[in-house]
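[job 4471] stage=fold_predict status=RUNNING
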Amino acid sequence: MSSRHPLQYWIIIPALNEERVVANTVRSALALDGARTPVQVVVVDDGSDDGTPHVLAEIDDHRLHVLRRTLPDARKGKGEALNHAFRYIRGLAEEAGTVHRTIVGVIDGDGRGEPGMLSEISAYFAQRQVGAVQCRVRIHNRTNLLAFLQDLEFSCVVDASQSLRDVLGTVGLGGNGQFVRLATLMGLGDAPWSACLVEDLELGLRVHLSGRLIRYATRATITQQGLIDANRLLRQRTRWGQGNLQCLGYVPKLVRAKHVGSFALLEFLQYLLTPWLVAPMTLLITALVGINFYAQFSGHSILGLTASSSNALLALGVWLLALVLPGLIWGVVHRLKHGDEPLWRCLVVGLVYPAFLILGSISTLRALYRHFAGRNTWAKTERLAETESPPAKPVPRVA
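[job 4471] inference complete, writing structure tokens
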């Protein structure tokens, strides 16, 4: 793409009661503006009743567009807020004749895009078959152990998974750091985002079914807040799990899609179906391990399981090693890959990682219950207060 006709980036920031973080997020998004990556920012104030409107009014920048939604139209979910911004951007792009070179990005209220990330994203969009690009996600408040666990998950486990999907052509879209061609969104109708609890995952599936490719940008990084309260994290993961269950309806469409290859189909099925196998398997394995250890230490036979006490300690050691080794490996990977945390912290978070996985299994069981009970309403996760950052200085554009 030449500097004469660069891609036009429109970044949507959905904001519902984001007074604690939205100023930093908007300034960070505006700072991504450059000669080859001109940026406009659209904030959708989705009926906030805190200080969000005041905070936004204090930001004086012609590149900032604030769309105010009021009840009863507001607060109908993130998907509806994104669709509102999409229709606004579509109208301006059609009027200016720039639909073919307009990219729509989504950054959450607590998101921060790293400088220069749009240059890498533009390189992917230079390929005509690419309809969307997903950025890597990291956690910026990882001084907290629970937040560090989420950083380990996003920046190592998910990063490795998405890198593999990039090879197979099955990259998924996330709620933070997704960039989609406006033309691709327009091909999905007047409301490309749905009311699904994981509208990002569903949008990614629809883009794949439309025949467009999604790429994973390994060096373009978005940072966000990690949750530091276990109950809120459990609630978030339960919502994600329930949304994943809602997306199972796309399995038959993926199976029938002629442009989805065999390996790609297996990968799609893996990340759509595996969460629902993990929970019951976790319960089964935990029960079997418990019964086995009881039989070993008591000497009684239970369900045919019995063992001498001499083997009990060896069995316990093997079981504990199998439990903690994967987390320790990911901790070492985090240290080698990023180098921004001391080794001892990486090892500690690796040791705690199995408990994090157990929390995920619990959230999956809760998601199953909520889904079949017909409970689909959710309260928004509260943000943590942040230190105000200085206003971003616009980057001079070169003619």
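[job 4471] summary: Residues 389-399 have pLDDT under 50 and may be disordered.
[job 4471] exit 0
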